[in-house]
Amino acid sequence: GGIITQTPKFLIGQEGQKLTLKCQQNFNHDTMYWYRQDSGKGLRLIYYSITENDLQKGDLSEGYDASREKKSSFSLTVTSAQKNEMAVFLCASSIRLGENTLYFGAGTRLSVL
Amino acid sequence: GEQVEQRPPHLSVREGDSAVIICTYTDPNSYYFFWYKQEPGAGLQLLMKVFSSTEINEGQGFTVLLNKKDKQLSLNLTAAHPGDSAVYFCAVSGNTGGLSGKLTFGEGTQVTVIS
């Protein structure tokens, strides 16, 4: 079996700060995803990457950048943290494009002061 | 696009009793259906993946029912135990081949099993 590792687990930022979240997977999956989880709102897709060096915008991409540096890693940048923002960011991967069973990491919990 | 409504948002159930979570979706062409379980501080774990051709699917301690006529997906927890306390999410996607990962998630149900 494989694992998805997200770092850091907890992230505290200041308003206006640029913050980067990292994700690594050892499944050798082609496709990776970033979701945002807000209480009572389910999961919303921010960015996904079909394969290395590919980037696709999701439904919530404004205010974020992403980078798929290599097949095993996918990072997400909050370009300017919003005051009092609190959310969990979940990274996921799937075997390939068209295979939509997702495997999730444990999440990064963001709080902005 | 697809919309998924999940009810109830919170559910308390006594140990040994059963509980039901229902998701209603809008796209009649939806093809894949998922239930995920999220324990505190963890990511989402896949409980079951259901194809549109199968109406009743049984897992360990739960049953998933798909009613395509009413566009409803349900998760029935049978004989709940403390380990079932978690947030449960349904997710739905179409049979679109090249648009992997375009799942639409429900809002989640917080299940608390009371001893």
Summarize the structure.
The complex is a heterodimer of chains A (113) and B (115). Chain A is an all-beta fold and 113 residues long.
Helix content of chain B: under 10%
Rg value of chain A: 13 Å
Q: What order do the SSEs of chain B take from the amino end to the carboxyl end, as H and E?
A: EEEEEEEEEEE
Order of helices and strands of chain A: EEEEEEEEEEE
Residue share in helix of chain A: under 10%
Low-confidence stretches of chain B: none
C-alpha Rg of chain B, in Å? 14 Å
Strand content of chain A: over 45%
* Number of beta strands of chain B: 11
Please describe the biggest sheet of chain A, giving its number of strands, its sense, and whether it closes into a barrel: 7 strands, mixed
Total DSSP helices of chain B: 0
The geometry of chain B reads as globular
Tell me, rounded to a whole number, the average pLDDT of chain B.
88
